[in-house]
Structures are given as structure tokens and as C-alpha cells.
Amino acid sequence: MAIDCIKTMPSITTPQHHPKDQDQCKDDGKSFVFDAQVLRHQTNIPQQFVWPDHEKPNTNAPELQVPLVDLGDFLSGNPVAAVEASRLVGEACKKHGFFLVVNHGVDKTLIAHAHNYVDTFFKLPLSEKQKAQRKIGESCGYASSFTGRFSSKLPWKETLSFRYKAEESSSKHIEEYFHNRMGEDFAEFGTVYQDYCEAMSTLSLGIMELLGMSLGVSREHFREFFNENDSIMRLNYYPPCQKPDLTLGTGPHCDPTSLTILHQDQVGGLQVFVDNEWRSINPNFDAFVVNIGDTFMALSNGIYRSCLHRAVVNSQTPRKSLAFFLCPKNDKMVTPPHELVDTCNPRIYPDFTWPMLLEFTQKHYRADMKTLEVFTNWLHQRSLS
Which residues fall in a coiled-coil region (predicted)? Predict the structure, then answer.
């Protein structure tokens, strides 16, 4: 059956399938403020951060055995290494969408600098961090938990997100962002994260070649699709919590983006839901954790999975991570290559653009394991009206 292409965002009503316990906060100017420097020392955490019993964390989750993909020989053009790497990636993406990459070519000093500046930024007074305050409905800026957006099940974390555009005309975009939002003293911040995002974009395109090979389409197909990506970089900071058994650093969700490249520090906390249980992915400073997002699941016509994952916190040590979310250029239509669609494998998801799904998750739906399903149903309903 042909699926109509919807290019613009119709007016939205909240989907009927939206969970009732994830209510949006009313914009009444009285939202609770998450000040990590104060709350990290309190023995009783605010009720907004207490999660339901069935979602409370398991800090002793068994380790998830994810494939370790060596990119060294693949990136140097070794055909045998390419076949083996694509096989490992394909197996992981059909099961849970997570794998690790080593010998990735990203400079270790650059990674270390990027982590150091996470510490520097999040140790600033709240008033300084709020110079980059994220506005309701936007995907970029500083966020102290989701206190301005949701009224319950809040994550115990702070984030700073900013946009990365791969176009040559945007080569100083991140440097300008830090200068404009935080001032001249943050020029070095901008330089480091500009370099880091460029490295992540390059790595992402290499991984896209692997994904194309593993799916049986041309090696260049997805690389070309994401060549001029318009992506999001996020710095995550999880302060210590005196009641880590009651809350979560990040609630269970599937990434709505295409591909996530995560670098963890040495403090564990990432968990993935596989075979009906939560399992941990232990830190490895030499590796990046890579996972498939909803947008690439749609690009693969559902062959590859976007998997539920979360982050837990602890009472002793801050945890930080660097997350690069690969996203297509805004005008790119998310549609699977013809090789992945036939009478035995009909289209599962309608065509859409990334900004449509982004707006859906930022303004109308709290990302979870059903995001793509609910978004798809909403698009179908709108196309019939």
C-alpha cells in the first residue's frame, strides 16, 4: 500500500496513547528548580524525582554482552575486516541495537578535554548555567532536569545540548553558540566541542557505511543521506543522589534520533532492557557506545531495533557522558531504500522529516519505547483527515 508523504507539521492534539503519569507542566512560572549543588546533599529528595516502584532502578543489573567492533582495519579499507564488522553490527542491531566501537580514530586527548569541560560547566553556579537556559519546546540549551516541562518522574540530571551542522558554512556554529550564550570566557569550550562534533560526524558516517553493508544496500547510501547532517550534541551530568534507589538519572526511553554515539566516564550507569530484564553496559574509556534510534529504525523499515535504555545514579560520585545524536538534514525525507521494501517486507512507517518527529517529542510526547508507534499512528490519522 502506498503511504502518503507528509512534509509539514499539522496542528497537534495530545495523542490518546500518551501515558497519564507523564503530564506536561503548566507554564505558570512556578516550576520547581533543580539545583544540583543543593539537592545532592539532601537526604530526602523531592517527590517529583521519586519513580513508581515498578520503574525503580536495579543497581546490580547483569552486564549486557555487546559486540566490540574494531574499526581500525575497516576504516583503512580492509575488505575482510569490513565484512566481519558489518556482520557484528547487523547481529547486534537486529537484537537490541547496541554495540561498542574501538580503534575509532578519535583523538584521546580531544575526548579527555571534552570530559573536562563537562565538569567545568556543570560546577558553575546555577545562575551562570542558566545563561544557556533551554526554553520549553526546544531541544537545545541548558536543562536542570525537566522541571519546566514535566511534573512527575523527573530525571536526576543536568544537560547542555547544542546543535551541530555539518555544512561548511556552519564550521564555527558551536563556537559562536558558546560565545553568544556564555560569553568570551567560553571561547575554548566552543573550540573543543566544535572539534569533538566534527570527529563524531566523521565517525558517524563511517558507521553508516557499516550499517548500509549490513543491511545489504550500498555502502554509500546512508553515508550520503547523513553527509550534511544536522545533529545534536548533549553533555550529561548526573550528580550524586542520597536516595539513588528511588530515582533515575534518565528514565526508560528509545532515542528518537538516528544514531547515538556515547562516551561514558568511568562511573557506570547505562542500562539496556533486553530479554525482559535490565542489563548494564560497563564503561570502557577506549570505546564508544553506539545505538540505533527510532529514525534509523524507520530508515531500515523496522529491520533494526531502537532499544529501551535508561541511566541510574549513585550516592557517591558524579557521572558524566558525551552523547552525539546523529540526525539527517532537516529537508531529508526519512524513507527506507527500495532494497528493504518488497511484498514480503511492506512499508511499516510513513515518510516523515526529522523536524516533525523532533517537534513531536519536544512539545507533545515524552519519549519512551512507543514513540515511533504513537507518532506513526498520529501521522496516519492526520493523513486521513
Answer: none
Q: Model confidence over 6-22: pLDDT tens digits?
A: 344 444 444 444 443 44
Asked if residue 241 lies in contact with residue 358, where contact means CB atoms within 8 angstroms, the answer is no
**Do the beta carbons of residue 302 and residue 294 sit within 8 Å?**
no
Q: How far apart are CA 381 and CA 363, in angstroms?
A: 19
- Cα separation, 6 vs 213, in Å, equals 29
- Provide, rounded to the nearest whole percent, the portion of the chain with pLDDT above 90: 73
CA distance 252 to 370: 11
CATH T-level fold of 40-384: Jelly Rolls (2.60.120)
CA-CA distance, 122 to 142, in Å (whole number)?
Answer: 10
Angle at 132 between CA 129 and CA 137, to 5 degrees: 125
**Amino acid making up residue 198:** E
Residue 311 φ then ψ, to 5°: -130, 135
| 356: Cβ contacts below 8 Å, ≥ 6 apart | 6, 9
Phi, psi values for residue 333, rounded to 5°: -90, 125
Catalytic: 223?
Answer: no
- CA 111, CA 91: separation in Å to the nearest integer? 28
Per-residue confidence (pLDDT) for residue 51, from 0 to 100: 94
254 pLDDT more than 90: yes
For residue 33, which of 156, 154, 157, 144 has the smallest C-alpha distance?
A: 144
> Of these residues, 279, 305, 310, 319, which one is catalytic?
319
Residue with cell 529501551: 308
Residue of 365, 362, 367 lying closest to 138 (CA atoms): 362
CA dist 33 to 90, 111, 131, 151, 302, Å? 43, 31, 15, 12, 39
**pLDDT tens digit sequence for 66-82:** 999 999 989 888 999 99
- pLDDT 10s digits, 151-208: 789 999 999 999 999 987 667 889 999 999 999 999 999 999 999 999 999 999 999 9
pTM of the model: 0.90
